[in-house]
Design goal:
heterodimer, A: FAD/NAD(P)-binding domain, 5-stranded parallel beta sheet, B: alpha+beta, Alpha-Beta Plaits, Elongation Factor Tu (Ef-tu), domain 3, 3 domains, 6-stranded mixed beta sheet, 8 helices, globular, binds flavin-adenine dinucleotide
Chain lengths: ~550, ~400
């Protein structure tokens, strides 16, 4: 039992994905998880009787369908349920709705600017062009641009071809796009501030950057590049909460003979003679395996799991320099009934969509300013959903689960560690923001789980509470993720690999890093590949 | 009494739920189903489908052809008509069935409701009055078409049972699959069967058309907290292909419509061998089917898992040597398995479970046509078959 072919550290969804593909290839796989439960940031827990929370991640779109299908996650109980639309509330008591029907959406935008209604089509087309490019790279291992190995050269050529196929004009746009701020990008299309504010949120979620900061245009793309059944950019829920993703992966893994051990925090990767021998737990137990894959973020992997003696100082420095700033919080709330949002009116389908409360880019930037000063935003960006309006398994009939993602929340409060009093004050700020648009909200609250970067780091093991295991900035993407020389899922020691969101193609419940890592392990072990190729959008 | 001459002025009839389906049809999309028109989609195909698999959804099945068969010889007549043993469908039970012509070719498929001892309702896709009257010869039975006398809704999805409980149908959760039960609904009698065309937990509700609108209203009121939505044909079609159900006129040509000889299919050729019972008394097509059993069938219906993400609509099916061996009859992207799936008819001996076939798919991206040849796996069963479909007591969500 203490011996395996492969040990995966951390039962996050990427670790489970890697493990499942490797077990499918016939390897004896053991997953070690520090928490009493699995899933990492893709988890469902019941903290209030009869309620289920999606405690961290809450919406699903990025999860690669190739993986879903190959591992038969449907048969293992996963059901991704699309939800319709979203809405931005304005301070003057109105809304801008992202209705599902394209024509209704256009007419809605035209209430704010007739021209923007049409500009939205051009905007969508341009974003889709970028999406198509990024999507083609998700299920592939990034090439090393400095290498002359045949495989890297062919992969570079592949990327080169994808870029060339864009044509000169789009290629020029692409190069600009990846370094632009979301504000500048939106300014090139729209005139209405409300319309821009409505779209800007996706550019800053989970990111310690403001709407004016270069690089946020890409973050928007990262939130658009998924799909639900081919509906690009659409989002859905995992039925039963995001933990359902992890549960289905775990079920697939065990069906292939893999094992998961919870309550098993790994202290160290054991290295002898220049290669991996296994791992040691916090309690001293040892497990041996010639291959160890870390699903933890790059900082914890390089600076935590590896003993400093096993690490070249130059590499250790890269790991230390890796940007992984926390900027988000999360509230999970059990509600005694459905709160009213008067601006929505009666029976508006958008109540089941994502709700936002910043109606100008100015307010976004001010929210970021607070974070820079070491405070949570006084006027925070919220991505608020009521999943129980769509998913009947989250709360009893007529009762509701509200998921509130909050941006920006600092890692330390004015340089000091978070206290429970700070957390209470933070909760109050968020409640106030919601109450401004839903007067009866607070009276319905039965229970609330409040999570700041402190809780996210302590529980999920996300350094600084960064939700993506590291910032999604251009300097940390593709062959630079997590840092140059380590983008091909291999660690600095023979037999060591990485499969978390800190590797290409990055954060989100996508499972692509885990799958790509498994492919590399199988390649090194000269085993048949079980990982599917990416599907073409063409 | 003869129908008034002026009937032609109403080209398309209204189902008993028309006032409600019109109000619900935000997209104003309709297509013809025999005398009636029904909704293609009400508000969004993907969200309607989602309601069906995630909460519950309502489909107006009133246009379905319905016949009532009564009389001392009703059982004998039914047994003579269809290929399965109707004696095994006890009162209060429903059974799926097919019936054949003398050549053993399928005329239609449908459901037999054993309403009360010796009283049957036959629901079918096609009109059958002439066929039933022909077959009646020598039997003491009465056959009446009752399509317009019964209004019907299909309520399908994981919260369908919870919705019916909220409607006041006490004990409905104990109804087993293919069971039926009656309840009082105001002045009317409401018949509920645990049946459907979606492969999910679900029910069909049968009522006097005079009470149809009241039923619709009460149902949507009861389902309000359970995510009830109207369901159009497009969304239903995704579900029925996932469930692996065949449709007359799509996956097989009803034998009494066929002009060309080789276009029809026997039950064996539609993967319905389980519906053919040679041990029961004589039935139409028996001799031909026995002969087919010893000679071997010409075709096989297969459920395919098609590689990649392109629906294999109307695709040719090839064998390993790149010979055409069949065609896809129904194809769809399955949201539940994130797979392109299809039903296909292939020539024997091709298409055994587990063997590879290839599909030649033509598809268009931004007005450019592309062609791909992708491998297909023959599945042993439907690609979607959730436990809740069969569980009793039925789950509430
Ligand atoms: C609040 C929040 C909201 C989010 N919202 C969304 C969203 O809506 N949609 C979306 O797509 N993405 C969202 N994300 C991002 C997404 O959830 C993550 O990027 C993704 O889940 C990370 O998965 P992973 O497998 O790479 O790593 P993780 O989930 O971080 O998994 C790492 C695992 O390792 C375990 N571990 C840590 N240390 C040890 C150790 N020493 N020994 C053993 N085990 C250890 C952890 O407990 C954890 O289970 C959100 C993230 C957060 C935090």
């Amino acid at each position: 039992m203490n011996k395996a072919d492969v040990i995966v550290v951390g039962a996050g969804h990427n670790g489970l994905t890697s493990a499942a593909f490797l077990a499918k290839a016939g390897l004896k796989v053991l997953v070690l998880e520090k928490n009493p439960w699995i899933g990492g940031a893709a988890v469902s827990r019941s903290l209030h009787k009869d309620w289920i929370y999606s405690n961290c991640s809450y919406v699903c779109s990025l999860l690669r369908p190739e993986i879903f299908r190959e591992l038969e996650l449907g048969k293992h109980g996963l059901h991704v349920v699309p939800y319709g639309g979203g809405v931005t509330f304005t301070r003057d008591g109105d809304i801008l709705g992202n209705y599902v029907d394209e024509e209704v959406k256009r007419r809605e935008i035209m209430r704010y600017s007739a021209r923007d209604g049409d500009a939205y089509l051009r905007y969508s087309r341009d974003v889709m062009r970028q999406c198509r490019l990024v999507r083609s790279l998700l299920m592939r291992t990034p090439p090393d641009p400095t290498s002359w190995r045949w495989r890297d050269l062919t992969e570079m050529r592949h990327i080169g071809r994808e870029f060339a196929a864009l044509g000169p004009a789009v290629l020029a746009d692409t190069i600009r796009f990846h370094t632009m701020s979301i504000a500048d990008y939106l300014n090139e299309y729209f005139e209405s501030d409300v319309v821009k504010a409505n779209l800007a949120g996706s550019g800053i979620i989970g990111t310690a950057l403001g709407v004016q900061s270069p690089g946020t245009a890409y973050v928007l793309l990262h939130h658009y590049m998924g799909d639900v059944d081919g509906q690009m950019g659409a989002w859905g829920f995992a039925r039963g909460g995001m933990g359902a993703v992890s549960q289905a992966l775990a079920s697939a893994l065990t069906s292939f003979g893999g094992t998961i051990k919870v309550d098993a925090p790994v202290a160290q990767i054991v290295v002898r003679g220049g290669r991996v021998r296994g791992v040691a737990l916090d309690n001293g137990d040892e497990y041996s395996a010639p291959v160890v894959i870390s699903g933890l973020d790059p900082k914890r992997t390089f600076l935590g799991l590896l003993a400093s003696g096993d690490l070249d100082p130059a590499i250790a420095k890269r790991a230390r320099d890796f940007k992984i700033r926390g900027s988000s919080g999360k509230l999970n709330i059990a509600l005694d009934g459905l709160p009213t949002f008067p601006a929505l009116g009666k029976n508006n389908p958008l109540a089941a969509g994502d709700m936002h409360f910043l109606d100008s880019l100015e307010r976004y930037e001010r929210a970021y300013d607070d974070w820079k000063r070491g405070m949570w935003s006084r006027d925070p960006y919220l991505d608020l959903l009521i999943p129980s309006l769509t998913d009947p398994t989250m709360a009893p009939p007529g009762k509701h689960f509200m998921s509130v993602f909050v941006q920006y929340v600092p890692v330390k409060v004015k340089g000091q560690d978070w206290t429970d009093a700070d957390r209470e004050a933070f909760k109050k700020t968020v409640f106030q923001q919601i109450s401004r648009y839903s007067p009866d909200f607070e009276s319905l609250v039965l229970h609330a789980e409040v999570r700041t970067p402190r809780e996210l780091e302590a529980e999920v093991g996300l350094t600084e509470g960064n939700i993506f295991q590291g910032e999604l900035t251009f300097d940390q993407l593709l062959f630079n993720r997590p840092f140059p020389g380590f983008a091909q899922y291999r660690g600095p020691v023979k037999g060591m690999y990485m499969c978390g969101s800190g590797t290409h193609p990055g954060g989100g419940v996508m499972a692509a890093p885990g799958a790509n890592a498994a492919r590399e392990v199988l390649l090194d072990l000269k085993r048949g590949n079980t990982v599917p190729n990416g599907w073409s959008d063409d | 009494m003869r129908t008034p001459r002026e009937h032609f002025r109403l080209v398309v009839k209204y189902t008993p739920f028309h006032s409600r389906t019109v109000a619900a049809n935000e997209l104003n999309l309709w297509h013809r189903w025999r005398d009636y028109s029904v909704a293609d989609a009400y508000f969004d195909v993907s969200l309607e489908y989602t309601a069906l698999r995630n909460t519950c959804a309502v489909f107006d099945i009133s246009p379905m052809t319905k016949h009532r068969i009564t009389g001392p010889d009703a059982l004998a007549f039914m047994n003579r008509l269809v290929t399965r043993d109707v004696a095994k469908i006890k009162p209060g039970r429903v059974g799926y069935a097919v019936w054949c012509d003398e050549q053993g070719q399928v005329v239609d498929d449908g459901t037999i409701f054993h309403l009360s001892p010796g009283v049957y309702r036959l629901c079918s896709q096609e009109r059958q009055l002439d066929w039933l009257h022909t077959a009646r010869l020598g039997f003491d039975v009465t056959v009446v078409e009752e399509t317009e006398d019964v209004a019907a809704l299909s309520l399908q999805g994981p919260t369908s049972c919870a919705t019916l409980c909220a409607l006041g149908l006490t004990g409905i959760e104990t109804l087993t699959p293919f069971g039926m039960r009656t309840f009082a609904f105001g002045e009317a009698e409401l018949l509920v069967s645990r049946t459907g065309f979606t492969g999910d937990l679900g029910y069909e509700l049968w009522i006097d058309p005079a009470h149809a609108e009241a039923l619709w209203d009460a149902l949507f009121e009861a389902g309000n907290l359970y995510g009830i939505r109207p369901l159009g044909t497009h969304a239903l079609d995704i579900a029925r292909i996932e469930a692996g159900y065949i449709q007359a006129g799509v996956d097989f040509l009803p034998a009494d419509h066929a002009i060309r000889a080789d276009r029809t299919r026997s039950p064996f050729e539609l993967d319905l061998a389980w519906l053919v019972d040679f041990s029961k008394p004589h039935f139409t097509g028996r001799r031909a089917l026995l002969a087919e059993q010893s000679r071997g069938s010409r075709y096989r219906l297969v459920r395919l898992d098609v590689a990649g993400n392109k629906p294999a609509t109307d695709a040719y099916v090839y064998d390993a040597k790149r010979r055409v061996v069949g065609t896809v009859t129904s194809a769809v992207w399955s949201p539940m398995s994130k797979a392109s799936i299809a039903l296909a008819s292939v020539a024997m001996p091709h298409g055994a479970v587990g063997t590879p076939l290839w599909a030649e798919i033509y598809y268009q991206k931004e007005l450019k046509w592309n062609r791909t040849n992708v491998e297909c796996t023959v599945l042993a069963g439907p690609s979607y078959d959730p436990p809740r479909r069969k569980v009793t007591p039925a789950p509430m969500r």
